[in-house]
Design brief:
Elements: H1 2-49
């Protein structure tokens, strides 16, 4: 019976540890979501600032000749 009690305590400790880790992971997840939202807003802002400028075709120069 002592062995069962000891195992029960071990399981309880593991559950408490897992719960604490879960809370920490949820906080990290929340922080990452906020960071992602910020990054997406910045990306959208940068995209809106990009201006596409048509490039005129380069004029090909005649090859130089040695006369």
């Amino acid at each position: 019976l002592k062995t069962v009690e000891a195992e029960k305590n071990t399981v309880t400790t593991k559950l408490e540890t897992t719960a604490a880790e879960n809370v920490e992971l949820q906080k990290i997840n929340s922080d990452l979501k906020s960071e992602l939202e910020t990054t997406e807003k910045q990306l959208k802002e940068l995209k809106s600032q990009i201006k596409i400028v048509p490039v005129e075709p380069a004029i090909e120069e005649a090859p130089e000749t040695d006369d």
